[in-house]
Task: inverse folding
């Protein structure tokens, strides 16, 4: 079943709102972590994590190293 224009607009708006909510959280988390607590280059995570939801999810589950006990 194809989506109507209204359904596409609602989905797009929802994705934009979600990205606008997630991007500051990712950027704040990157700012407070040291280089030893992040996998890979910080610049990559800033760009990828703040521009799309997939990048933010990958950062959250892979880019952050587990906390030291």
Result:
């Amino acid at each position: 079943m194809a989506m109507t224009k209204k359904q596409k607009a609602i989905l797009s708006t929802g994705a934009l709102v979600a990205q606008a909510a997630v991007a500051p959280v990712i950027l704040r988390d990157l700012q407070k972590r040291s280089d030893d607590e992040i996998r890979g280059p910080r610049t990559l995570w800033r760009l990828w994590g703040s521009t799309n939801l997939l990048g933010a999810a990958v950062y959250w589950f892979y880019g952050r190293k587990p906390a030291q006990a």
Summary: The two ends are 50 Å apart (CA to CA). The first helix runs from residue 5 to 32. Helices lie at 5-32, 42-51, 53-63. Residues 24 and 51 are 11 Å apart (CA to CA).
